[in-house]
Amino acid sequence: MTGQQAHRFERGTDGPKVIVTGVDGSDSSLRAAAYASGLARRQGALLAIVYVQPVLGAGAALGAPVADTTEEIAQDLVAQIREAMERLRGISDLRWEFHTSRGDPYNGLVKAADDLKADAVVVGASEQAGHRLIGSVAVRLVKAGRWPVTVVP
């Protein structure tokens, strides 16, 4: 290098400015969202709440309107989040956004975290026994090593 150092963007040096939390309606994901909201409030960060609507194979979709069901879950989550934020009005100036997309939860959270330039990701621990064998979304996010990841039990 010639006397000039390349400027490099460093995330998280002054605390997180954007915290992404994944929700899916499970108890652990809602606890993660509550934990993330406390972090965001204390840090003055933006809380980005992300729900990735699963896309199931054609065989799983037979006999059930899956798209309608996942859309209902998204609407229910938005209603729950708005209600919780309304309770905080006046006692907290928490900034938050709700994002939803369709696809694989891991890839959806990675894309959201990248697009939003997240400084931290907070997710709930998996409540499914099969994830001990194939790896949960939380474990995959930690292994990606792209952001600090907090897994809330």
Automatic annotation (TrEMBL):
Highest taxon, organism lineage: Bacteria
Signal sequence interval, chain numbering: none
Pfam families, per the entry: Usp (PF00582)
Chain ranges of the UspA domain: 17-153
Similarity field: Belongs to the universal stress protein A family.
Protein's name according to its UniProt entry: Universal stress protein UspA
UniProt organism field: Streptomyces toyocaensis
